[in-house]
Amino acid sequence: ATLQNILNIGGTDPQIRTDTSDGSDNKTLWIGGGGVAYSWDRGGYLYAQGNEAGGHVGIAAGNVSGGSIKFTTGASEAMRITSSGNVGIGTSSPSVELSIAGADPQLVLWEGADGASSSKVQLGTGTAQGFINVHKGDGTRTVQINSDGDSYFNGGNVGIGTTNPTVSAGT
Q1: How far apart are CA 30 and CA 17, in angstroms?
Q2: Distance CA 159, CA 165 (A)
Q3: Is a pLDDT exceeding 90 seen at residue 89?
Q4: Is the whole model's pTM more than 0.85, yes or no?
């Protein structure tokens, strides 16, 4: 690799460098820490890479088992991506692909910018129960499934074992 413009800050190992290793106009800016000189295989690093045809920006935890990428706001961790690829929002130890934790965590998918009056699917825990809500385009809730309370389908016929239901589920 051809290394240029190495800058050492507070030690003998480079913390900031540029790299033109492929000999073309591709350029890479690396900012890292915790690694051995020029290896960048330990600790964390940021990089920006590309040329006039395109590029990308990366955040890496290095090649260390157990490394993770943390996003913080203020002094609190808001999100983490573990070395196994699990994502945690509100938790530092996500045990599945996506974990959302909090006092009343919800996952909401909606159409439009604000979600107030649009098609929406809402999944959450509430304070004492889990729920799934589905809203139609005008914001009206048409499906509500509660783990501890009333559930309903309000917006047409309901079929089990058919794709063409002709009766309502019940009144």
Answers
A1: 5
A2: 5
A3: yes
A4: no
Q: Residue 73: beta bridge partners?
A: 76
Contact yes or no for 32/45 (Cβ under 8 A):
yes
| Structure-token pair, residue 40 | 């960048």
Residue where the block lists tokens 């260390």 = 64
SS3 41: coil
Q: Is 18 exposed, middle or buried (0-12, 13-18, 19+ CB in 10 A)?
A: middle
CA dist 92 and 78 (Å) reads 9
Confidence check: pLDDT of 11 > 70:
no
How far, in Å, CA of 119 to CA of 153, rounded? 15
Long-range contacts, 52-56 (Cβ 8 Å, 24+) = 52/25
Confidence at 131, pLDDT banded by 50, 70, 90: very high
